[in-house]
User: Fold these one by one.
Assistant:
Number 1:
Amino acid sequence: MRKADLVNQISEKTGIPKVDVLVTLETMFKEVKDTLAGGENIYIRGFGSFITKKRAAKIGRNIKKNIAVHIPEHYIPAFKPAKEFVAEVKKLVEIKPDPGPGEDA
């Protein structure tokens, strides 16, 4: 699903014009980025957490020049889904086994 598809679905389900949904969605994305860039995490009960993870400094390798490169410690954004969210997705994704030959469905 792309952002345009998401905007269309939200618009259809709520009756809010697509332009308003797009502006709201873009504002939400911007706030998530700004908040994480400011070093603060976002916790949404029942959905998940947008957090920053610290990556330790390490030595990498430039394979073209075959030299060691120092990679400083840095932070990366991450999403950790809530337990309820994970459980709901697991329920939907479970694949039911096909009945074997001679078995009824």
Number 2:
Amino acid sequence: MKTYIQISTTTETKEEAQTIARYLVEQKLAACVQVTGPIESIYRWKGKIETATEWLCLIKTRESLFKKVETAIKKLHPYETPEITAIPIVKSSKEYLSWLGEETRNKI
């Protein structure tokens, strides 16, 4: 059985998020990327508490494509250490998973 995941990453600008989203979908590394924001992130970086306005990408793909998605994000992302986290899609409609699988089919 195929396993599907949702990968999250954040960017500083909407344009950066859209660039990543478009590339992943064009390359069939993701079936869909939702770009949402702006969001506020509060985090510790190099010993200091930081606050930033960011844009969130929610990337739907196959688990087997995680490394390729990670590589693409790192190539396109301006951050030194971008967020690249994944969670499994544990429940979904059969039709949605079928579509997700079809849209990422050529990259396995």
Number 3:
Amino acid sequence: MKSIFIAFDQAHKDAVISVLEHNNCRGFSYFEQMQGRGSKTGEPHYGSHAWPSMCSGIITIVDDARVDKVLKELKALDEDSELLGLRAFVWNIEQSI
């Protein structure tokens, strides 16, 4: 099992959830309002007067076999709207109950 954490501009919410649904990733936790700044490009997401946008996050646990397809679809989504920002990170899940 793997964990995929996805940080994204709030405008991506429906598209990110669609990617998960398309890949039968049923369970996830959604963090509606997060602040942050990308490590490569894009504008900060601070919810302030200077930087009014916010970002969100989703974490999901999936079978290893689904990871590459999910990441490929998320990368395509990011490339379609690069200025919005979207990043995904994968961790091993050692145990679960």
Number 4:
Amino acid sequence: MKKDNDAQNLGRLDSLDVLRGFDMFFITGGAAMIVGLCAALNCCPWLAQQMRHVDWQGLAHHDTIFPLFLFLAGVSWPFSLSSQLKRNRSVLQIHLKLFQRVITLFLLGLSFGGIMMFRPDFRLMSVLGFIGLAWGVAALIYLHVKKNSIRIISIFALLTAYWALLRFFHAPDASQELLLGPLGSFAKETNIVTWFDRMVYPNHLMVKVGKGFLYEPESLFAVTNGAAHALIGMMAGTLLKSTSITPSKKALSLFLCSVGALLLGAFFTYVLGDVVVKALWTSSFVLYAASYSFFMLALFYFVIDVKGWSKWGVLFRSIGRNSILVYLMNMTGVTGSISRWIFKGVHANAGQWRQFAVHLTFFIAAWAVLAYLDKKKVYLKV
């Protein structure tokens, strides 16, 4: 962690920090808070369901949190790269900083997989590790491919190749009965990606399905489509960084990109036979998640940076500026410990509102810590 006096002078947009904080809100008590509110009021079961991941096929709001974070990491890269170039950083220095970020994120994720406890079955991949690798691949493509048209072609090439892999190949040990089922080669037990995982690092996977069957929801072999998603974010960042388009037209362009990604996702789903599976980062999932990400970025950018309605952003801005730290606080239980220490009485006497109250105080505790650090301009940089 370091003090960063230039954090707000690197060309970054306020809407990015607020949107990132809004995204992190859902894993910092927000999702459970909404579930608790629905339970206390005995209403809106559909809303509560949106706060949980789907089991395999399909898409709920909770499934958009991870890809939106990766998308925003992509949006920030053109600004970061421009800042480094203005500081006369050499190509070697830029590469070293890029690889340092990838390695740091991967090691941070690895530390939560049991390796620090010397478990022989430690989990190799993780959310942070996937973000690091996917962002790193996308950043390298963006850095070395100078033309936006070729970058866009690269995105389509990655999405199409990954779709073809899942559509036309299957696990060699897949049963014909499952292959003839509704999901075909996209099912948990039949797809080629989880088979690769089981063959390459079988003792370091996360999820057990049935008797002895394992798969990894942040698969090493899905990183290419994660990179496509991050690269889509980088193209959004390139648009926002442009000086030849007015802010209002930028917001409109982001919205149109949202519509375009939605239509392209529908093409992959209904014409090419792709299946929406977050655990596989299928191409249709990436495109639907990109559509949501474009829409949210367009909305937040228009409201905050175009219209200047930014005061309400105080709820999320500090968390967005220290998003990796708040994620680590959540993973290590620090937020919960602070909340239980300060709000013990509230937790004990909330009655039917207990789940809502507990997770509201989780968010308050996280916000208070991050707001203090933001005031001191102290950020965890990776």
